[in-house]
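Case study 2.
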Amino acid sequence: MKIKGKVAVVTGVSNGIGLATVKALLEEGVKVAGWGRTAPDLTHSNFHFFSCDVRKPEAVQEAYDKTLHKLKGPVSILVNNAGLGLQANLDEQSLEDWHTMFDTNVHGLFYCTRQVLPGMKQQEEGHIINISSIAGKNPVPGMVGYAATKHAVTGISHSLFMEVRDFGIKVTCLYPGSTSTRFFYNIENSPASPNMMRPEDIASTIVHVLASHPNYHHVDIEVRPLMPKGKQKK
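Prediction:
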């Protein structure tokens, strides 16, 4: 699909994968609406930031309305990137943290997706990319709540794909391994290292998926660093 001139919404754009994705899409001539609580340090004629807390459906509705008004076109691309992980064993997880993760990672994804789907169905074209995690496939001790939200993202993605494929709408779930973002800042005994993947690498995968033939669909994509601990001595 030719993506130049298309309208894309990317959530969680202040840094990391979200910001890298915005930059990659802009390089392809895409008009990008960034939704998030914090604006990125980015100025571009095809980029417009709309303050939006995806945990609040009324805020998502407002951001969507402003996007349509400002960018003058239907949304063809949605990248559900906004998310967070708060570390704790299940019996030690606070109710507040548990709800914050689900409100952001799951409910926020739902609110954003339900806004763009009617327009995508009407134009019989669209691509929704959900940023999950390796935690959406594998058990992660000490991150039960986060893993639960990402398993939910997997379930949503797979079921939604079956619902909308006949409308010409694609749904892709991306499972990154360790990536150099702020995600690891507040995680005890963090696996963060210089050998993690770069956000730019994830963004390049997203662009590749979006540009694929309309009848060629990437359902799941798992990406990991080749040498997570660096090159080993022989």
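The chain has one domain: 7-223.
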